[in-house]
């Protein structure tokens, strides 16, 4: 009989395991697909940032937001409804009370089918009932979950698979990003008990374009971190594709003489390529935190982007705001509450402009690994994280954080 156990990071020595293929049990023995960290995290933060304009400027900003209507793909209505056929909210109304937004990030590379992707970044944004506090929570991409049946994509369901496979399965047989988003929302909702009023998918390429439009972001690196993606070639940092782990990157550096780029400890303004490269690292993260360390840095990057986009210089320049909207819209899919259009949704988010975005860690930022006969299978959520999602469901995250300060990601 298979021997199963759950290990925390210390027992697992912080090792970063290889990921199973998302194709189900029969596919798990196949060659591992190249996992990529991605981030879908911009949409809601970006919407809130746009609203940080005082009084009379809102009229002019509505005109700018009109560009967003045609720039961002909007998913078919109703895919996030708890029950099919639930009545839609009247058009033009803002969201009332606490609400949750699911953010998915994917990474498609040149020549890859856009629907052949996993959501390697999965985040939940909870906004309290007063709309003056927001909490961002990340889920491990290797989390073992039940993925429900999804007839739209001819998917029979699976009692146990990695959570990032839900998007892939929902996107098959014509489901596309909309189907992937719908199945991912059902899967995360079943796991956490949360209902989502909105959701978004963003591709890596679009995210990079947005950072380029911002110019730079202020980031802090807690310890020297080698990149497995960027190497110094003839004195210039250069992206080198197809590096699957730290050992392969080290072998490439030794073979070619092109040293791995090192993100030096300290705080500074980072160009888009540098900030994204730092946020992508998981094999070389300090203290062996692996994917959990990458989650921290992804959250850190969101907050840095929100701060930069919310600066007076950006918001006073409607041309810059328009550029950011258009950059974000190129690789984004947004699912809105039934009966809402993009402009209504963004104006619902306006109060978040002055709210503090609290970054929260799952599993205290360490591995909670499932090991069967010595083989890594995936992750589970610890009891504190389960309590965190229950607190979000009842809109009591503020109290939860006061009692459990260790869950807060304080990286700057």
TrEMBL record:
Domain Cell envelope-related transcriptional attenuator as annotated: residue spans: 118-309
Chloroplast is among the record's keywords: no
Pfam family, one: LytR_cpsA_psr
Region (Disordered): 1-32
Keywords recorded for this protein, A-Z: Membrane, Transmembrane, Transmembrane helix
Transmembrane segments: 38-61
Keyword Cell membrane: no
Signal sequence coordinates: none
InterPro entries: LytR/CpsA/Psr_CW_biosynth, LytR_CpsA_psr
Source domain of life: Bacteria
Biased composition (Basic and acidic residues): 7-21
Cited PANTHER family: POLYISOPRENYL-TEICHOIC ACID--PEPTIDOGLYCAN TEICHOIC ACID TRANSFERASE TAGU
UniProt record similarity statement: Belongs to the LytR/CpsA/Psr (LCP) family.
Protein name (database record): Cell envelope-related transcriptional attenuator domain-containing protein
Source organism: Catellatospora bangladeshensis
């Amino acid at each position: 009989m298979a021997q199963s156990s759950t290990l925390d990071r210390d027992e697992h020595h912080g090792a970063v395991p290889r990921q199973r293929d998302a194709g189900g049990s029969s596919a798990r023995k196949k060659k591992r697909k190249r996992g990529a960290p991605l981030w879908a995290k911009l949409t809601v933060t970006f919407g809130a940032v746009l609203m940080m304009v005082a009084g009379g400027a809102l009229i002019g900003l509505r005109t700018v937001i009109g560009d967003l209507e045609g720039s961002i793909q909007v998913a078919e209505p109703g895919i996030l409804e708890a029950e099919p056929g639930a009545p839609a909210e009247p058009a033009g109304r803002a969201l009332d009370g606490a609400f949750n937004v699911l953010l998915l990030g994917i990474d498609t590379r040149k020549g890859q089918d856009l629907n052949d992707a996993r959501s390697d970044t999965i985040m939940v944004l909870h906004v309290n009932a007063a709309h003056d506090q927001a909490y961002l929570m990340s889920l491990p991409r290797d989390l073992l979950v039940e993925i429900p049946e999804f007839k739209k994509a001819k998917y029979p369901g699976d009692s146990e698979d990695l959570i990032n496979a839900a998007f892939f399965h929902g996107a098959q047989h014509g489901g596309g990003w909309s189907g992937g988003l719908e199945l991912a929302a059902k899967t995360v909702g079943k796991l956490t008990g949360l209902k989502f009023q909105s959701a978004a998918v963003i591709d890596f390429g679009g995210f990079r374009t947005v950072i380029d439009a911002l110019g730079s972001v202020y980031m802090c690196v807690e310890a020297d971190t080698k990149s497995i993606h960027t190497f110094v070639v003839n004195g210039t940092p250069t992206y080198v594709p197809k590096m699957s782990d730290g050992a392969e990157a080290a072998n490439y550096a030794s073979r070619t003489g092109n040293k791995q780029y090192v993100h030096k400890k300290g705080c500074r303004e980072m160009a888009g390529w540098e900030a994204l490269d730092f946020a992508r690292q998981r094999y070389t993260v300090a203290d062996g935190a692996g994917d959990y360390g990458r989650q921290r840095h992804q959250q850190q990057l969101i907050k840095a982007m929100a701060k930069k986009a919310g600066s007076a210089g950006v918001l006073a320049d409607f041309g810059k705001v328009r550029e950011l909207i258009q950059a974000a819209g190129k690789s984004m899919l947004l699912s809105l509450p039934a009966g809402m259009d993009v402009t209504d949704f963004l104006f619902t988010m306006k109060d978040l402009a002055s709210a503090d975005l609290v970054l929260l860690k799952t599993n205290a930022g360490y591995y909670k690994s499932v090991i069967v006969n010595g083989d890594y299978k995936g992750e589970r959520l610890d009891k504190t994280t389960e309590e965190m999602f229950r607190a979000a469901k009842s809109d009591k995250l503020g109290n939860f954080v006061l009692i459990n300060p260790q869950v807060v990601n304080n990286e700057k």
